[in-house]
Design brief:
With about 475 residues, this protein is α/β, with parallel strands linked by helices. The chain folds into two domains: about 220 residues, NAD(P)-binding Rossmann-like Domain (Rossmann fold); about 180 residues, Rossmann fold. About 40% of the residues lie in helices and about 15% in strands. α8 packs parallel to α11 and α11 crosses α12. The longest helix has about 30 residues. The chain is elongated, with a radius of gyration of 25 Å. The chain starts with a strand and ends with a helix. Bound molecules: nicotinamide-adenine-dinucleotide. The site of nicotinamide-adenine-dinucleotide (NAD) has 28 residues, from α5.
């Protein structure tokens, strides 16, 4: 691995040098396929740097919004998106034709899994098909979607080759994973280092040069596969460590006298060799629940079971089931049947202070509560838009919190720790609270109503009372 610097441009071929010169004098046109959480910030960065930028996305509503100079990505400033559209430096389309003008094309499309949790490359492949129709000599393609090692070389390149062009001799291609962390106020596109792995040295250098225009530090690795696997390692590292504290949380609930949150706080005082992860009702978002399966699927091809990685994913997936069991026990303590019970879910985004609802633990919790026959499930989350939150085949509309409303539920379940929630009011008026995020940690009054994930405090209190 090496850190990119401009001295590497000296080793470029003539073809590569032509693109490098365009990038250096800002005449290069930057294309982005997929204008979502990843593609839009990249488009905005390049447009603001003065590069003509072309975005494509099949989503009609996104293109219509952009053409009205409206923003739909919460981390981007509305006025900055409006400015690049109004000035004409950024243009958005619903088809690939305009990308013929691009010198560099970033692919930022979804990489979900299917019902069997096998990788679904359909979006990457369809994007490749689109690019193949307009690919021209000297273009650089950079795949950014998170995926398993081999995707760039074994899946994307064969599709791009349908254009009649060949990588290395005709076009350049690299994999460069995305590290954007929506909602992060410290690390953004510019100050988060990035990794690139090209199919050949020219591709690596050109992809690093392109990224270096909007990112301060770019590291070059040997090939696309290294870059593909390092991204999976980043996210699987999180999955494994979250699973570790989730397992400890379950153990602490069984043992007496240990609050897992205090254990984690205490361990976090160590200034080296430890990184803080906290338990919760499950993992969510577009990465942590999915990426471990991308690797375990590939490993099977090599007669290799990623036992450790799969076990961690299973522990995390078991958490919503555990939370629902706790809620059902809390309902059983009350003179109400499950069919007549009312549960309020507080927070449904996959993490705090963001709108992103994808694969949120709330989804699994709601589905399991419905399966269990809980009569009424309602949500409150100021980050949910007017068209509601879809889970388990139903649409849930956010309820405004009032003391009377809180008092009307048998259990109030704290799932997402948005800063907006007034926890003292919630606890004061709730009958029972199940806290999966330690949101009520500072509450002393009404503490007896709270079941805290990873703590046996409620069980012990009941034991002492009897
Ligand atoms: N969101 C994150 O925080 C994050 C972080 C790191 C990596 N990633 C990875 O980046 C990739 C994109 O994620 P995202 O969050 O931006 O997804 P997203 O759903 O927000 O955006 C993807 C966009 O691609 C569009 N699209 C679908 N098919 C297309 C096609 N054939 N051509 C052009 N556009 C197409 C969709 O309409 C959508 O607007 C995924 O692989 C994801 O795992 C995401």
């Amino acid at each position: 691995m090496r850190l990119f610097d401009n001295s590497l441009l000296d080793s470029l071929s003539d073809n590569g040098l032509a693109l490098a010169q365009k990038l250096e004098n800002k005449t290069a046109v930057i294309g982005i396929a997929g204008l979502g959480y990843v593609g839009m910030p990249i488009a905005l960065e390049f447009a603001r740097m003065g590069y003509q930028t072309i975005g494509v996305d099949p989503s009609k509503w996104k293109i219509e919004k952009l053409n009205r100079a409206e923003n739909y990505i919460e981390d981007l400033k509305d006025e900055e998106v409006a400015e690049v559209i109004h000035s004409g430096i950024f243009k958005a389309y619903d088809n690939y034709e305009p990308l013929a003008e691009a010198d560099v094309i970033y692919i930022c499309v979804p990489t979900p899994f299917n019902d069997n949790k096998d990788p679904d490359l359909a979006y990457v492949l369809s994007s490749g098909e689109g690019i193949a129709t307009i690919l021209k000599k000297g273009q650089l393609v950079i795949l950014k979607s998170t995926t398993f090692p081999g995707t760039t070389e074994d899946y994307l390149i064969p599709i791009l080759n349908k254009s009649g062009l060949k990588p290395t001799s005709d076009y350049f291609i690299a994999f460069s994973p995305e590290r954007v962390d929506p909602g992060n106020k410290v690390f953004n596109t510019q100050n988060t280092p990035i990794v690139v792995g090209g199919i050949d040295p020219d591709s690596s250098i050109l992809a690093a040069l392109t990224n270096s225009k909007v990112v301060q530090k770019v590291y070059m690795v040997d090939n696309p596969k290294v870059a593909e696997l390092e991204k999976l390692l980043e996210n699987i590292f999180r999955s494994v460590n979250i699973a570790l504290v989730n397992e400890l949380a379950l153990l602490c609930e069984r043992m007496g006298g240990i609050n897992v949150w205090e254990v984690v706080e205490a361990a976090s005082t160590k200034p080296f060799g430890y990184m803080k992860f906290v338990p919760g009702p499950g993992v969510g978002g577009h990465c942590i629940p999915i990426d471990p399966y991308y690797l375990s699927w590939l490993a099977r091809e090599y007669d290799f079971e990623t036992k450790f990685i799969t076990l961690a994913a299973n522990v995390n997936e078991s958490m919503p089931y555990h939370v629902v069991n706790v809620v059902i026990k809390e309902i059983a303590n009350q003179p109400v049947s499950l069919a007549n019970a009312r549960v309020l879910i507080v927070g449904v985004s996959f993490k705090k202070n963001v709108k992103d609802l994808r694969h949120s633990p709330a989804e699994a919790v709601i589905a399991r509560l419905m399966e269990a026959g809980v009569g009424a499930i309602e949500i409150t989350d100021p980050w949910v838009e007017a068209d509601g939150y879809k889970a388990a085949g139903k649409t849930f509309y956010t309820k405004e919190i009032t003391p009377e409303m809180i008092a009307s539920y048998n259990v109030v379940l704290l799932v997402t720790d948005h800063d907006d929630f007034d926890i003292p009011t919630i606890v004061e008026h709730a009958a029972y609270v199940v806290d999966t995020r330690n949101m009520a940690k500072d509450i002393t009054k009404g503490r007896e109503k709270i079941y805290l994930l990873g703590s046996s405090e409620k069980k012990e209190r009941i034991r002492m009372e009897h």
